[in-house]
Design brief:
Order of helices and strands: HEEEEEEEEEEEEE
Strand content: over 45%
CATH superfamily: monomeric porin ompg
Number of domains: 1
Largest sheet: 13 strands, antiparallel
Distance between the termini: 18 Å
Structural class: mainly beta
Number of strands: 13
CATH architecture: Beta Barrel
CATH topology: Porin
Number of helices: 1
Helix content: under 10%
Length: 210
C-alpha cells in the first residue's frame, strides 16, 4: 500500500496538510498491513511520506517499507522538482534503497485530478542507471461519499536490458464521514518483491483520517 491517494487528492485541491492511518487485509498473502501517511503543502511545494508494516501471525512484523518525497514548486513554476528516497526490510529480503530525482506535474479540481513524475532512479550498488515513471489519480464518483483513486509505477532496477517492475494499486473508498472510510484496493504487480510472475492481490481496508 503506497502513495495511497492522499498524495494527489490534497496536492491538487485546497487542503494544505493531511494525515491518515489505514488497515488492510491482504487475502492473497494472508496478512494485515498498516499504513501511516502524511502530506503537507507550503509556499515552496509539498512533502509526502508514508510507512507500511506487514504483519504475519506466525512471526509478527514481517516487513517495513518507507518513502519520503519532496516537490519543490512555486506558483510561477509549471513543473516541480521531485526528490524522493525509499527503502525497507523484510524477514526474507531487503528492499533496494533508492533515490529518485525528476520532474513533477499535476492538475485537477474537486471532482478529479492526477499527478505524475518521471525521474532518474539511483539504487545502492546498481551497476546501471535506472528510471521511474509514476502516475497517481483520483475521481470523486459521488461527492463526499465514493472515491476511485490509485497509482501506477514503472521502473528499472539494473538498466533498460534488465528487470523492469510494474506496480499499481487502484482503490475504491466509501466515506462514512469525514474521518472514516471503508473500501480496499487491488495490487497489480509484475517483477515486484522477488516474485517474477504477474500478481493480483485484493484487500479490504478501513481508513481513519486524522
Amino acid at each position: 500500500m503506497k502513495k495511497l491517494i492522499t498524495l494527489i487528492t490534497i496536492f491538487i485541491t485546497v487542503a494544505v496538510s493531511a494525515q491518515n492511518f489505514q488497515l488492510h487485509r491482504d487475502f492473497e498473502r494472508g496478512h494485515f498491513t498498516t499504513t501511516f501517511e502524511m502530506f503537507k503543502m507550503d509556499k515552496y511545494g509539498n512533502t509526502f511520506t508514508f510507512i507500511d508494516f506487514d504483519y504475519n501471525s506466525a512471526i509478527g512484523t514481517s516487513s517495513a517499507y518507507y518513502e519520503i518525497a519532496r516537490v519543490l514548486k512555486t506558483e510561477k513554476m509549471p513543473v516541480g522538482l521531485h526528490v524522493e528516497y525509499n527503502a525497507g526490510h523484510s524477514n526474507q529480503f531487503s528492499f533496494n534503497e533508492a533515490w529518485i530525482i525528476g520532474a513533477n506535474y499535476g492538475k485537477g479540481n474537486a471532482k478529479w485530478g492526477f499527478s505524475t513524475y518521471a525521474g532518474y532512479k539511483a539504487f545502492t550498488g546498481a551497476g546501471e542507471g535506472n528510471f521511474q515513471v509514476t502516475g497517481t489519480w483520483y475521481v470523486n464518483l459521488i461527492a463526499d461519499k465514493l472515491t476511485f483513486s490509485g497509482f501506477a509505477d514503472l521502473w528499472t532496477e539494473n538498466g533498460l536490458s534488465e528487470k523492469t517492475v510494474f506496480l499499481s494499486e487502484p482503490q475504491l473508498w466509501y466515506h462514512l464521514n469525514k474521518n472514516f472510510s471503508v473500501g480496499g484496493e487491488v495490487e497489480l504487480a509484475n517483477n515486484f518483491g522477488y516474485e517474477f510472475d504477474f500478481k493480483v492481490r485484493p484487500t479490504l481496508g478501513v481508513k481513519w483520517n486524522l
